[in-house]
Queue: 2 jobs
Job 1
Amino acid sequence: MPCPVCQSINTGKIGHNTYYCADCLLEYTESGGEIEIFYIDAEGSSLALKDKEAALKLVKSIREDKGLLPEEILEGLIVRS
Ligand SMILES: [Zn+2]
């Protein structure tokens, strides 16, 4: 299925209802029409992003800075459990 964030078809299924986008380097899950998007940080933990807007913002900053996202930006985009 195409990436819900960037619409790329450069995606792969990596698990049950779990997909990976090679263009925005995010993982997302689809279940019953609900899509959740995850950012994988440097330690390999999945961080749930608030919504598609947050995911787009994150991808844009990563592309522009070509590196890891500053903690303070990330903080505003993810759902803290
Ligand atoms: Zn994507």
Job 2
Amino acid sequence: MENDDISLDSGEISELDALAALCVEDDAGVDDFLVELGRNLGPGSRRLLQRLAAERQAGRQKRPGGNQAIVGAEAGLREVMAAVRQVGRSDAPVLILGETGTGKEVVARAVHQHSRRAGGPFLRVNCGAIPAELIDSELFGHERGSFTGAVATRKGWFERADGGTLFLDEIGELPLAAQVRLLRVLQDGSFQRVGGEHVLNVDVRLVAATNRDLRQAVGVGAFREDLWFRIAVFPIPLPPLRERLQDIPALAAHFSLRAAERLGLPPRMPDAADLDLLAAYPWPGNVRELASVIERAAILGDGHRLEVARALGAVPTPARATVGETSPAAPVEDLETVIRRHIESVLASCHGRVEGPHGAARLLRVNPHTLRSKMRKLGVDAGRFRA
Ligand SMILES: Nc1ncnc2c1ncn2[C@@H]1O[C@H](COP(=O)(O)OP(=O)(O)OP(=O)(O)O)[C@@H](O)[C@H]1O
Ligand SMILES: [Mg+2]
């Protein structure tokens, strides 16, 4: 229950100040806690909350690598982070799987940071961006003059990542010829530069990521099965954002702070109604899309508030969505109306059921509790749709 009238006495303020100091010390789960606190205490303490959050941000930036905070590490990404810690101790290859924008690169860096190689290099390469004729030279490097254009000796990925981690991003895009070369170096652990005479040995940990179904790619011959077995020793699947709605408040707060800093505006936190809207959206672009919606909300609110509803309204409707029936000439419907009609049409198809395997919440991919509160707010009565 939100209580907007609460005022804090000096004792409570100093208690919260002590809490702020503690928050700066320890990252785990505190963002989530701060957001909950702000939701429950109302505007007075929301201001305090913003100060706490700003202090945390400042504290983070003082620590090396600290701006790589992983929001939800103790919530929606708890299992992922447990896997990261587990595999970090070994040198086994890691394969990170997940939809676009779920945080694969963030997790790849975390694997590096949790390994004995944390002090060594972390090299990210985009496997989709290498022209076929340059693959050998990219992977293994080349000696000066070994081919036209090789004006200087160049180290390849494996040499540059020596003592650290090589992150092969979008590995599903690696052309077949490159897959063969990669497999060879993974099997032998040694290679030669193009045009070179010496055999080189390096100590590199491989982390790969893909948003493609690599098993299916193996099935249709687009990805080599032997390479798949090599890299898929320890797969870490990242859940899409719509399956970890509990992380949305903390992520929104995190991106709001980031946007405020970037725009030079005072940070504004999402309120309960904003959070409901964010929880009801399906997030096809996952965390990256949430970051851009919050940034847009910060720009639209111009330091006064976060304009979440308007920012979400500006999201282009995906082609598969059923809500975009307005013709260009028709007046634009407001977001609440569109959301209400969408909820009603799903409730109708579920005969008014909200919860359970055949309920509207499951179809809409939201928590039943969130859906009920949304329905209350929009005046939707599930009873109307029961047979
Ligand atoms: N848990 C998180 N905490 C904080 N920021 C996150 C988190 N997850 C993702 N991000 C941010 O969201 C953006 C997208 O993350 P990232 O680039 O790791 O996604 P990705 O899965 O590699 O996406 P793609 O498949 O499109 O390459 C980045 O700006 C990243 O910093
Ligand atoms: Mg990526």
